[in-house]
Amino acid sequence: MSEQDRGPRRPAGGRPRTEAGERRRRLLVVVLGGIAAAAVAIAGIVVAVARHDGDGALESSYDGPLAPTAREQYGAVAMGRPGVTTPVLDLYEDFQCPACRALERRIGGTLKQLAAEGRARVVYRPFQLFQQEPLMSNSRRAANAAACFPVGAWVRYHDKLYGEQPPEGDVGFRNQDLIDWGARLGATGPEFADCVNRSQQIDQVEKASAQAGRAGVDATPFLALNGRRVDDDVLGSPDELRKAVAAAGGGEHRAPGRARATGVATGRHQARP
What we know:
- Residues 87-245 form the Thioredoxin-like fold domain.
- This protein is α+β, with helices and mostly antiparallel strands.
- It is built from nine helices and twelve strands.
- Helix 5 (175-184) runs antiparallel to helix 6.
- Mean pLDDT is 77; it is low at 1-55 and 251-273.
């Protein structure tokens, strides 16, 4: 990671900005308030925000078949071949987070390929990260829509949301857009539109945010392999991710590890007290 990638950029509103070549990153400090439904507080999350091109498309190095998907608790979606239970890759993400979008561009295709080849079980865990407006409402609408979308084609909708991620500071992920994107991917019935317009899954979004806190998610993007947060090299390289998964081993009867998370991945910063 170059020094250009690490350079901070301040938001609009009279504060100074700096440009560093073609790539930029801004540092945001985000504090998640208490989640009343689960009585869990996430004290703070600091997110490094990566470049956003706003081109409506998400580049991917993988265009092969996708493993089957299944809905799990709190809107999570598991992707994997039947019988594959380990190793498990848990990805905590926010569709409004540009650093998460950058991660998807770097290794999203590798995650899909690992699942399709039966080398890992991948669990996407969208949740609401931001508290400031308009980021918070953008995040909530996108996460609610993802929880509403039919699970069979969910990964394509997941990628579409990142491809349409609004620029920082803009109101985006409007309900009608979320519905239109879903219709293009097959969700043409009234159930999906009603679910989006009425925020029918927002309770699941809030519970997912609480669950992220219980899992020790203190920065995003957050990728765990068998319960342990991966290090910088794994987050930054498809090859290193493949090596880590291979080293973790397979086996349908092996329980996921519960080792304490260590390390800070590229594009993330530890929460401050």
